[in-house]
C-alpha cells in the first residue's frame, strides 16, 4: 500500500472519499490491518501531529515502511523492534530539530477598530483587550519572549497573569509593564497627553531604559504631558474611565470643549463652538 495514503490518514489530510476507500480496503485485508495499527501506534508514540510532520519525518516513515514490506512478516520480534527503534529515532531527530528551530515562534498581530465602534479581541492566552473608537494596536513578541504592544488610541487591557511571558505597552515616551492587571490607556497620537488608569492589580511605568518611574495602585490615574514630560497622579473611579467599553459616555466636571472633542473622535465629525465661554462651561 502506498505510504502517501498512510501519511494523509495519520495527519488528517485525507478526503472523505480517500478515507472511505482506505478503510474499506483494510476491512478485507487482515495483513494491512496489522500494518495500519502498528504504524499508527508508532506515529502516536513519536508524538508527531499534523503541525509537526516534517519532511524528515515523511522520509523516515517511507524508509520504515519499506523495511516492513521487505520483512514479509517473517521477521522475528527482535527484528521488528529494531526497525521500530530506527523509525522512532529518525522521527525523534527530525522532531527535535524542528522543535528547537521553531519552539519560540515570533508573535505579530495588528488590530484596529473603526470610528464609532468598540472592538474586543482575545489573545492566545485568554487575555481580553477592548479597543475604543479609531484605535490601532500592534502586538509583537521580542527576543526575551515578552509581548510588547504599541497603541494609537484607547484600549482596556484585562490580562491573565503569566510570569513566563510579561506584557508591556510601549508608549514611546515611557512603557507600561503589566503584573497581572486590568488597566486602561488613552494614547491617541493626535492628543497632547497619555492617560493611564489602573482598575485592579498592579502596573509599573518604566523609562525606555527599564528604570521604574512609578508603581501605580488601583484607582489611580496617571496623566502624562508630552510637551513638558510631567506626570500627574490623581484618584479616579475606574468605572467612569472604562465606561466607553460598554458603549457609555460619562463626563464629570469636564468643559464642553473636551466633551465635544470626545464626540468628534467617536463619530468622526467636527463640532464648532463659537462662544468661548460656552466652550469652557462645565
If you had to describe this structure to a student in words, what would you say it looks like?
With 282 residues, the protein is an alpha+beta fold. It folds into 3 domains: 3-102, no CATH class; 108-247, Jelly Rolls (Sandwich), CATH 2.60.120.1440; 251-282, no CATH class. 35% of the residues lie in helices and 26% in strands. It has helices at residues 3-10, 16-27, 30-45, 55-71, 77-102, 238-241, 256-267, 276-280; strands at 108-112, 119-122, 128-131, 136-141, 147-158, 167-170, 175-178, 182-187, 193-200, 203-206, 212-216, 220-225, 231-235. Strands 1, 2, 3, 4, 5, 6, 7, 8, 9, 10, 11, 12 and 13 form a 13-stranded mixed beta sheet that branches. Strand 10 (203-206) and strand 11 form a beta hairpin. The radius of gyration is 29 Å and the shape is elongated. Residues 43-54, 72-80 and 99-105 have low confidence and may be disordered.
Amino acid at each position: 500500500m502506498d505510504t502517501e495514503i498512510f501519511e494523509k490518514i495519520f495527519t488528517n489530510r485525507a478526503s472523505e472519499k480517500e478515507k472511505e476507500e482506505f478503510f474499506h480496503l483494510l476491512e478485507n485485508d487482515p495483513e494491512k490491518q496489522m500494518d495500519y495499527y502498528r504504524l499508527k501506534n508508532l506515529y502516536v508514540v513519536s508524538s508527531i501531529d499534523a503541525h509537526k510532520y516534517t519532511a524528515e519525518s515523511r522520509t523516515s516513515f517511507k524508509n520504515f515502511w519499506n523495511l516492513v514490506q521487505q520483512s514479509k512478516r517473517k521477521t522475528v520480534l527482535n527484528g521488528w523492534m529494531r526497525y521500530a527503534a530506527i523509525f522512532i529515532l529518525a522521527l525523534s531527530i527530525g522532531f527535535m530539530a524542528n522543535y528547537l528551530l521553531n519552539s519560540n515562534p515570533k508573535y505579530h498581530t495588528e488590530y484596529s477598530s473603526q470610528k464609532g465602534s468598540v472592538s474586543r479581541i482575545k489573545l492566545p492566552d485568554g487575555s481580553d483587550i477592548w479597543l475604543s473608537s479609531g484605535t490601532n494596536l500592534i502586538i509583537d513578541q521580542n527576543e526575551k519572549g515578552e509581548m510588547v504592544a504599541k497603541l494609537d488610541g484607547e484600549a482596556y487591557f484585562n490580562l491573565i497573569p503569566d510570569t513566563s511571558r510579561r506584557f508591556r505597552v510601549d508608549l514611546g515616551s515611557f512603557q507600561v509593564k503589566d503584573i497581572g492587571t486590568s488597566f486602561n490607556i488613552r494614547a491617541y497620537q493626535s492628543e497632547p497627553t497619555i492617560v493611564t488608569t489602573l482598575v485592579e492589580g498592579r502596573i509599573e511605568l518604566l523609562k525606555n531604559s527599564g528604570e521604574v518611574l512609578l508603581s501605580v495602585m488601583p484607582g489611580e490615574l496617571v496623566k502624562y504631558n508630552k510637551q513638558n514630560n510631567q506626570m500627574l497622579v490623581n484618584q479616579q473611579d475606574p468605572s467612569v474611565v472604562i465606561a466607553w467599553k460598554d458603549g457609555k459616555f460619562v463626563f464629570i466636571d469636564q468643559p464642553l470643549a473636551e466633551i465635544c472633542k470626545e464626540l468628534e473622535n467617536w463619530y468622526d465629525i467636527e463640532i464648532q463652538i463659537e462662544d468661548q465661554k460656552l466652550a469652557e462651561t462645565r
